[in-house]
Amino acid sequence: MEDKRILVIGAGGQVGQELVFNLREKHGANNVVSSDIRDFGDQAGPFEVLNALDKERLFEIVQQYKITDVYHLAALLSATAEKQIEFAWDLNMNSLFHVLNLAKDGHINRIFWPSSIAVFGPNTPRENTPQHTTTDPTTVYGISKLAGERWCEYYHQKFGVDVRSIRYPGLIGYKTLPGGGTTDYAVDIYHQALKSGKYECFLKEDASLPMMYMEDAIRATIELMEADGSRLTIRSSYNLGGISFNPKEIAAEIKKIIPEFEITYQPDFRQKIAESWPSSIDDSFAQNDWDWKMEYDLRKMSEDMIKQLSKLS
Ligand code: AKB
């Protein structure tokens, strides 16, 4: 395996903490630098405080650690971004430019940057959404992710930048809590089911969305970054299918393990966002180009979530 020195930006978030853990197992703790806007207590390897908008500090860190690969995860998610629209645009776009420019100028070799199902909108086919289709996002987050995708492809075509990306569905894991997304209910529901046996959902019972267990999402991210670049036909961002379910279906699955569990519904502004997103995704490009295969379905994920959270509590 070639020597990699990795920087993860936004390492304190839901994906970041799990990704850093896995990358350190694979490449050695000292070869994976985690960074975030604040010190979140990562002591398992090198950590740097980094504001993703501070391109001078970013450059210093890249030089200091001789970074080869950057995983750039820092962003405001869909629900939070609606409350700070200008800052969300600034953070989500300009931090991406800083990383793309580092690669363009030859300072790093490879970039991972996540996009999202939020690039789709009300005129996108909702079922089995294809890779190439109408993208008319109605959220600031979705607009920034779609623009980011176009810039990634542009930098790849014009400057040969090796940037790779996945349109993450809602991600569900037991180690860390998500922050500010529309799909966050699907994590919180497990915590509340164990804590109080009930959950009030901010989406309607039939709001189906594509989701994925964190184990699969981290594996997908690392597999895409290790894939043979000559096979990759998508340099904007790959669709990733995951598991499609609605709040009623996840509640029914939880009830099989915790029979007294009860769900109620109090939809808020996030319901409208959910309605503008697909309910299921076609990921045949990921399957063909880098042999992607999902492992966790709703049952397997629910069993593992409840088992792992019970151990932690
Ligand atoms: C969100 O809900 O904003 C995110 C996403 C789907 O990108 N989880």
UniProtKB/TrEMBL annotation:
Chain ranges of the NAD-dependent epimerase/dehydratase domain: 6-228
Molecular function in Gene Ontology: L-threonine 3-dehydrogenase activity
Record GO biological process: L-threonine catabolic process
Recorded superkingdom: Bacteria
Matching Pfam families: Epimerase
Record-stated family: Belongs to the NAD(P)-dependent epimerase/dehydratase family.
PANTHER family: L-THREONINE 3-DEHYDROGENASE, L-THREONINE 3-DEHYDROGENASE, MITOCHONDRIAL
Name of this chain's protein: NAD-dependent epimerase/dehydratase family protein
The organism of origin for this protein: Acidiluteibacter ferrifornacis
